[in-house]
Design goal:
single chain, alpha+beta, Jelly Rolls, 4 domains, six-stranded antiparallel β-sheet, 8 helices, 27% helix, 31% strand
Length: 530
């Protein structure tokens, strides 16, 4: 029997030991099994792996308990995942329901808005038709109808079937309203057209459209001249009737205007029993809060001016009493509401100031002896005295005319009746470093104001005082001030330095007029620096 195979095996083992002397084949070879090895590697391949730097490591078996724990954790994680999916779907469903509800609400709000707009349009058309009908009825004088017995009934019988004539009369009425907006009283601006007796509860006006040509809101009273409130006599400045605005009450009228045109509103107002009374005058989004607590006349009535620029062809003019008193009847009296179209004066070569002679201003009632008060205003407001701003907290300046006052130049002037509390201001474009000269008149209005008057002018870094000793019968003197501009815009300021009163206790002051500003020659500039 040949034993060649054994010899060959022994030879291979010897060669392996010679080739890898540091490795004990009996420990790492296939002849010794490790408990963790399930498959013995081929010895030759095993030694080749050792030569390449890799070592043979046993794969530990995973315990059955760990597998069960992992399965349990996996099941738990799967359950959490499914729970999160369900919660997410539930949140999405809730959000979808909420979004649908919001969409339904928006649709409902849109429908309600459309209904409200339709109702407002219908109400506006109804008011317009009623106003047109009132205008049509007013085209025939009630006195004329009642002057001849039976004639009024004949005219009414003729008007009733003639619709074409009605349209014609409405057109005529519209033209009358448009003409009235140019200058003068508004239709029934003096409230002489009375409300029907059935629309009055004593002096309180009940109906919204009870006062012809006007629409009222809140506590409004119709006051007749000489009427008493306790011991207080309520005078009426013009005519026989006026209205009183109680707590949060207002009156308004629709007027026709020209777009982009400036207008001045003039109205008379008087305080009653409230102390710090104010009136809010507005046209659409333009409004002004006018303080009326200071009385400038002995009669208790003052005329006030306010201006606006028309943005539409038809606007609502509203006069509102924002005050709230314990007695709702403690509100201001309103009378004589007028309007005037304002032109825009331009600067000229002979005068860099706009409206320096004050010829353009608010409407003054004919025969009025107290002028018109121009209240303080912000810089962005439209001034009833074009070109000029009235800078003050609560005080005004007075716009006076020649027929009733002494005016130094032309037909209009400004009386500074509030001392240091007001200033007449205008901004003008100048060249820094250039010299200018300002000229103006200072006098008195011949209204009994006897005092030593001082008017101070300011411009850039210069100031100049002009004195006038008034005897109350008129008179004036010319003032002059030279200055050098320090900026591209220079403010020209005129201010009374003292407070003055007439014998009846009413406020008065110096009159300023014909204010001019020119750039002086180089020779005059050199003399100025000497």
């Amino acid at each position: 029997m040949r034993v060649v195979g054994l010899t060959n095996a022994t030879g291979r083992k010897r060669k392996a030991k010679e080739r890898f002397p540091r490795i004990k084949a009996e420990q790492r070879g296939p002849y010794r099994k490790h408990p963790l090895d399930k498959v013995d590697p081929d010895p030759y391949i095993h030694w080749i792996d050792l030569k390449m730097g890799r070592t043979h490591t046993s794969r530990p078996a995973i315990p059955e308990a760990s597998i069960e724990a992992l399965k349990t954790q996996l099941a738990a994680l799967q359950g959490e995942k499914e729970q999160l999916i369900r919660e997410h779907r539930k949140a999405l469903d809730a959000q979808e329901v909420y979004s649908k509800g919001l969409k339904d609400q928006l649709i409902q709000l849109g429908l309600q808005h459309n209904e409200a707009m339709k109702a407002a349009k219908a109400a506006a058309e109804a008011r317009l038709n009623e106003a047109l009908e009132d205008a049509n009825n007013s085209t025939v004088s009630p006195r004329a109808e009642s002057s001849v017995p039976g004639q009024g009934r004949v005219l009414m019988a003729k008007r009733t079937p003639c619709m074409a004539l009605l349209v014609l009369l409405v057109g005529v009425a519209d033209r009358v309203v448009s003409t009235a907006t140019d200058r003068g009283l508004l239709p029934n601006g003096n409230f002489e057209e009375r409300p029907d007796k059935s629309q009055l509860n004593g002096t309180i006006v009940k109906g919204r459209f009870s006062i012809p040509r006007w629409e009222i809101s809140g506590f409004v009273e119709y006051i007749e001249s000489g009427q008493r409130q306790g011991e207080l006599v309520l005078p009426v400045p013009e005519g026989a009737c006026a209205v009183r605005l109680g707590n949060d009450a207002s009156i308004r009228q629709k007027i026709k205007v020209t777009r982009r045109t400036e207008y001045s509103i003039t109205f008379s107002a008087a305080r009653t029993c409230a102390q710090a009374e104010k009136l809010n005058v507005s046209v659409i989004f333009d409004s002004g809060l006018l303080p009326i607590q200071t009385v400038y006349t002995s009669s208790g009535w003052d005329s006030y001016a306010w201006a606006f620029r028309a943005k539409h062809t038809v606007v609502w003019l509203t006069i509102h009493n924002p005050g709230v008193e314990e007695d709702p009847a403690c509100g201001p009296l309103i009378d004589s509401v007028a309007i005037k179209t304002l032109s825009r004066p331009r600067r000229t070569k002979s005068n860099m100031l706009r409206n320096g002679d004050f010829e353009e201003g608010p409407y003054i009632f004919p025969g009025s002896t107290w002028g018109v008060l121009v209240p303080p205003m912000d810089e962005d407001d439209f001034s009833p005295l074009p070109g000029w701003m009235i800078m003050s907290d609560t005080k005004s300046v007075k716009y006076v005319d020649a027929p009733q006052h002494r005016v130094p130049h032309g037909a209009r002037a400004v009386e500074l009746v509030a001392g240091r509390e007001t200033a007449l201001v205008q901004e003008v474009a100048t060249v820094p470093g250039r010299s200018y000269r300002m000229l103006f008149y200072v006098g008195d209005a011949a209204n009994g104001c006897e005092a030593s008057m001082i008017v101070q002018a300011y411009a850039a870094r210069a100031s100049q005082q002009v004195h006038h000793d008034s005897k109350g019968v008129g008179g004036y003197k010319r003032g002059k001030m030279d200055f050098v501009a320090v900026d591209k815009l220079t403010r020209v300021v005129l201010q009374s330095m003292n407070y003055h009163m007439k014998p009846d206790g009413t406020l008065c002051g110096p009159v300023v007029d014909d204010v001019s500003l020119v750039s002086v020659r180089k020779g005059a500039a050199r003399r100025l620096f000497r």
